Amino acid sequence: MNPVSKQSATRPPRAVPAWLPYAILAAAAAFLLSRWKALPSRWSSHWGAGGVANGWSERTIAGVLGLLALALPVLVLLEILAAAERAWIARRPELAPLAWATSQLLRLIACGVSCFVAFLAIFLPLRASMSLPRVGVAVALFLLAPTVFGMAGIAREMKRLRDVGVIGEGYQGMVYRNPKDPRLWVPNLIGPGITINFAHRWAWPMMLAVVLVSLALAAFIFASVTHR
Question: Is the pLDDT confidence value at 10 over 70?
Fold first, then answer.
């Protein structure tokens, strides 16, 4: 690979600020506190089957800001994962753009989580109702859109790195698919661990087995908790 191609392969993409998801939550908290007197003393915050309310929140610090606080561990976890991607890629600097694109996907998801939680924290007390279509629109806008945008960025970086010869055949976006590779499990391109070769004949049976085992385990845990 010539010097120009190598320099292009290691160019990091534009970064999403790490502080942005936290700023979104802080702005939502500031808005709610500024509208404190306009908030109702009690409002529905959870609904069961048939849309019947079965949970309520009150105008207290915990009731108003508690939902925003619940997002903080998720944001911290996503940032830790993003930092781990960047640290791991130090062993393979030629893949730096891909690591940055992956970390930016995680930050975009963090921003989406913050926007979605901020939407719920503001909308619920001020409107005191929540319909399924509104939730669906919020999920599509705040969660799906940044995820699709971030994954498109990863796909672009992978194509560019493949064009300059940094990435070999098989790695396609977030998955590995190579019918010429006899292996079922292959190393991850970014970070530790392994991934599955989706072109292998046993790939989908293995994925189905993993899903069924996970569902069975979740059902067992749920049954154990509810029958105490």
Answer: no
